[in-house]
Amino acid sequence: MRQPEVDVLINVMYPAANAAYLIMNVPAPPLSLPNGFQLVGPILADPAAAAHAMSQAHPYQQRIANATVAESSILGLVAYNAAAKCAVVALRGTKTIWEWIDDLEASPVPYMPDPSAGFVHMGFYLVYAHICRSIEGLLRQGGVTIDRLYVTGHSLGAALAILCGFDIGQRMHIGPAPELYTFAGPRTGDPKFASSANASVKVCERVVNFMDVVPQVPFPPLYEHAGYETLVHGGFRPLDVTYAHHLTTYLAGLKQLPEASVKLAAAPVLAASAGASAAASQEP
Question: What is the CATH number of the domain that holds 145?
């Protein structure tokens, strides 16, 4: 991985992805956003926005969306750096991967807004359908100029980030092509959708920790990853399969990359806020 990408992952994507978990709590604790970024607002689930998609789904396919929204109606945040004209969309997963990972073995279905784009996991799409209006509204809020647009997420949030980045590029047309940096993401769609997503986004980087089971599912050939993988070795425990999935374990792995040994201060937008990288993730 190129050194500027490591800067972005450690100093922008990790604190943003971590804050996406923290903001789901009411009241939310103080958020350690990336340096220079201010909160635009929380990403809120809107059942009305998802009503049509939910009506097309079998109750089994609705389980991931129902469980995710039941945890909290807040599924992440949008933040903005005015000096750099840079926005970041950060999406959360769930408190435990077992809330949704058992539902992954399902056949993909056509991507509803544009079936020609390929097939996606219906459970992931139903979650995204709840939040797409909120994300678009936050990105358009105040008519700010966006010269750089990041999308990130961890675990289930990484699958949502793929759908979000594709949606921004294909439908919202806000700012430049989005740049995706995800952690511990499962496969989101079939090979055709992976190709469509790769064509729609400027950058699509997936960070995968050694021995993390989530990036291995759902299985090919029905599903295929979008983007490019960077393997890290943040640690694992033989008797604790969730340990390798921790967001903080991913941070430990990023810090071990050779490129991370240099001083991470390439530009103001990439500078880490004090203590941001030490914040604890809510998802195991």
Answer: 3.40.50.1820
Residues lower than pLDDT 50 in the chain = 262-282, 284
For residue 103, the enclosing domain spans 3-270
Q: How far is CA 263 from CA 6, 69, 271, in A?
A: 11, 40, 10
76 falls within a domain:
yes
| Total number of domains constituting the chain | 1
- Predicted confidence (pLDDT) per residue in 103-150, tens digit: 666 779 999 999 999 999 999 999 999 999 999 999 999 888 999 999
- State the burial class of residue 51 (Cβ atoms within 10 Å of its Cβ: 0-12, 13-18, 19+): exposed
Query: Domain for residue 183, yes or no?
Result: yes
Distance CA 192, CA 174 (A): 24
Is 0.70 surpassed by the pTM of this model? Answer: yes
Residue type, 263: K
Q: How far is CA 115 from CA 106, 110, 132, 164, in A?
A: 18, 5, 17, 16
pLDDT digits (tens, 9 = 90+) for 222-232: 999 999 999 99
- pLDDT value of position 269: 43
Tell me the CA distances in angstroms from 122 to 89, 114, 160, 278, one per residue in order.
22, 14, 12, 34
